[in-house]
Amino acid sequence: MRRKRERDYLFQRPGSRNWHIRFQGEERTERSLGTADKRQADIIALPLIAAHRAKVLARQPRFVSGWWHEYEPGREHALPDGTKIIATNDQLIYIGHNGSIIRTEPNGAPQYTHPTRLKEPSFELFDKERATPTLAVKNGDDALFDAYLTHANVGQKYVPEARAVWELYKTLVNKPLKDATRDDARRLVAHFEQQGNKSATIQKKLSWLVAACNFAIREGRLKFNPFSSVVPHRDDKLRRVPLDADDIATIKSNLDKLSASDQLLVRVLATTGCRLSEAYEIKSEAVEGNARYVVLGHKTEQSLRRVPLPADLLPFLPARIAGPLFQGDAGRASRTLGKFLRDIGIKNPAKVTHSLRHRAKDRLRAAGCPMDVQYELLGHEESTVASGYGRGSPVPLLKEWIDKINF
Predict the structure, then answer these.
(1) Is the pTM of this model over 0.90?
(2) Is the pLDDT of residue 377 over 90?
């Protein structure tokens, strides 16, 4: 079949001994090959036919594969609302005003297009049925960082945060870890400072790189940790202050602006003084001497404690807690309650959701609650010898004191 089509290009005009060649297409072309010998005409026609076929093939619809990026990789982008986006080759990492990760999304999608419409010449021809996007190959430092996350058993909750810091390093510094200097690390510190982060927050963010480099040193892959102790010691921590009586009155009169779950969360925080994350630990209860209580503070040994359910809280609780009291995550609740305080007129930046815990501490102190009982109700902020002794005071006794917090 193919040979027949090749011979179709050649013909003889009536009254002419010479062979001619004819091409169909956007422009019909005919020309004489200058010979009456058919075999000679075939040889002369071969390069002409090849050139014609190349032009036809170039005009035929073909597709190329690539990856369309929504945001340019390797850069930080800003949205109108102040949200930052760190764009990697295949991922978008959204960073909120406080430096926390809001969400992650793919950076674009596979792109299938005609080569004449491409702006990037690096895409190659592909079989559309088997096409897959071609992404950047990870380098040795990427593999090292992945190995650290696996070895340290970093929970899925924190992996996006760790990767965001790693991608930021690659964006701002863009050099192998073995060549990184302390000045390079300070570039990250300066970046976080420009975002308004406090030194403690910056230290927390850089801790991922510090830990990854320490892992690499133990593995014999690095000899120096450029990120260790580069954050300046500054007394810039925001001093949170307790909510006063007027603030509490404002909160109570506006509680109906929150969902039923968030209203209950505010009552739990206000009457127990527990940390917001600890409220999300409440999944069951127990009873001692007719006093209902929950166990909080599973994160550290010094914070683990039994907390009675206060009288002001009981009317809003189920008859028995037999499952998670709150759904979702504490990060979402923190943002919601923080916005709630600002919306109802509590504008002082030092007054935040955690200020309910400071208020509880002040209320217990004002009531003359012994320090050891305060520790038992609120948890030890630091590890002490006393925190490791005994099971603690009877729950009914603890309840007498926690009821003095009120709401």
Answers:
(1) no
(2) yes
